[in-house]
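Dear colleagues,

As part of the handover before I leave the project, I'm documenting each prediction I ran so the next person doesn't have to rerun anything. This entry is a single chain, and its sequence is reproduced below.
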Amino acid sequence: MIVASRIRIAILIITVSVLSVLFPKLLAGEGRAVIRCVEDFSSFKAGTFPLGWKSRGGDGSDVYTVRSDHEGYLEAKATRSAVTIAKEFEYDLKEYPFLSWQWRVLELPKGGDERYKRTGDSAAGIYVIFQGYFRPDNIKYVWSASLPVGTTTQSPYNSRTKIVVLRNQSSPLGGWVSEKVNVYNDYKRLFGQEPRRVKAIAIMSDSDDTQSVAIAHYRRICISKD
């Protein structure tokens, strides 16, 4: 019994030693993480505006609020408004080509159609913003109120912003939906060239053009190697 016990202890020690060497390598590629979190909103107090995010087009705290339901998430409630919030997060798209997140939409902007200025509202949108001097390139992934899933177009406000429709009015509302996109491939397809480094990730739910309301939630925004 003593011998058997010593053998089990020896096997356990060897197993722990092997895992201590291999486990970090499984999670990292030569010192670089396989997955990096841009934001999960769990580190912020519920009812606050997330630190580290900057607003454009108005006061972000009027539209975006951290909430918690066993897990932190960001609530966007846009009432006839168009406020974008962004977090600086620089990285090489060749190294981390994938972007993933979860979102859910509770209310679509009535009559929203991203192709035109008079209707250019999205229930939910995630931007990837690239480095640039004057008008940087952007890819905006949207939950549209009307356009078919798979539609690609450009913003009527900025020709350097390409729009990709992932969900629309036919997608179920009120439940979390997981997304994962290959931003590197999308950039090459949409712009026809190699991308610059990513500068920031942004969020926008808007309803100013349609003078209506858009409500959406966001969480678990991450980049990954595969």
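Residues 34-224 form a domain with the Jelly Rolls fold (CATH 2.60.120.260). The first strand starts at residue 28 and ends at 29.

All the best with the project,
I.
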